[in-house]
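[Discussion] Sanity-checking designs against the backbone

I'm trying to build intuition for which residues belong where. Below is a structure token string of 208 positions. I'd appreciate it if someone posts a full sequence so I can compare it with mine line by line.
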């Protein structure tokens, strides 16, 4: 009887991809980001705002989740393994340019998309979402603490905050869609291990 495509691999064929700290940081950040997105939707989409009600409470939850969003990453910096993964994410090599070029050309051949522990798409996403989070935090503080800046700055901050929030929602939807299409990648974040075959296929330059 054949195994399902997303069934766990036999014992001994799995390798460690993420430790408990990396998985905790990812989960905590995902929860906080989800709260920010859902509360923002409840604030800005009229039908949802009417259905949820209690606008003042929703605003407070949104603000607290936004302020807490960088905390998991900051706590994770105490872990050597987490810092090591951040260095991998922040380092682009010639193979990453090949990966991006293949992605832009919609070339899906595995040989045309070499990747280390993280592929170039994951690196770009991590850099973009980190920058977007900092911008959202800064503009959110200007909107919350009205005495920090003149009216013109707060108006501009509101504009940037709202439109960047919409962009983040779209990018997150794409990120979730990619994750849903790769059960083994999800299992790696859930359990910390992936199959050796998946690692060789998706990340051939990674040396665990």
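Best answer:
Here's mine. Compare freely.
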């Amino acid at each position: 009887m054949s195994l399902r495509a997303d069934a766990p691999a036999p014992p001994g064929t799995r390798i460690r991809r993420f430790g408990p700290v990396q998985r905790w940081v990812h989960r905590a950040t995902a929860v906080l980001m989800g709260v920010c997105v859902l509360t923002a939707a409840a604030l800005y989409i009229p039908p949802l705002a009417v259905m949820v009600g209690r606008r003042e409470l929703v605003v407070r939850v949104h603000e607290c989740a936004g302020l807490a969003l960088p905390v998991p990453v900051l706590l994770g910096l105490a872990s050597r393994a987490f810092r090591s993964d951040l260095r991998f994410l922040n380092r682009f090599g010639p193979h990453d340019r090949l990966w991006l070029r293949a992605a832009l050309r919609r070339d899906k051949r595995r040989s045309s998309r070499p990747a280390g522990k993280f592929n170039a798409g994951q690196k770009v996403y991590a850099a973009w979402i980190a920058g977007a989070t900092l911008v959202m935090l800064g503009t959110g503080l200007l909107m919350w603490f009205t005495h920090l800046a003149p009216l013109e700055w707060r108006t501009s901050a509101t504009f940037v905050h709202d439109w960047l929030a919409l962009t983040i929602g779209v990018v997150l939807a794409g990120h979730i869609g990619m994750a849903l299409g790769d059960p083994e990648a999800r299992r790696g974040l859930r359990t910390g291990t992936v199959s050796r075959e998946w690692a060789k296929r998706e990340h051939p330059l990674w040396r665990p």
